[in-house]
Write a structure and sequence with these properties.
The chain is an all-alpha fold. The protein is built from 4 helices and no strands.
């Protein structure tokens, strides 16, 4: 396994972060979990697991959820890259 791949702990933290953000947006939109999972045509238990950070949703599933929530999918909003491509500097220095 290449050394620059994220480890399981990082992936777990990302699942938690994404699930929390989905829940925050859903609540901000005054939607129930039921309204979201039915509109996204998905299983209740799977949707609940996504919000709880226990599931690994596919890109298709994430796009369906963001469509129902009427938000754009953002990659690491407001942050620099979590794992910049090899050879790139994160400090912005040339």
């Amino acid at each position: 396994m290449p050394a620059d791949l994220p480890d399981d702990q990082w992936l777990e933290a990302e699942r938690q972060r994404i699930g929390k953000r989905i829940r925050e947006i859903r609540e901000w939109r005054n939607l129930t979990q039921e309204q979201v999972y039915l509109a996204a045509t998905m299983n209740r238990a799977h949707y609940q697991a996504i919000e709880a950070g226990r599931a690994n949703p596919t890109l298709r599933t994430l796009l369906l959820i963001t469509r129902v929530l009427d938000v754009d999918i953002e990659l690491r909003s407001g942050e620099g890259p979590a794992h910049p491509p090899r050879g790139e500097q994160t400090s912005g220095a040339s």
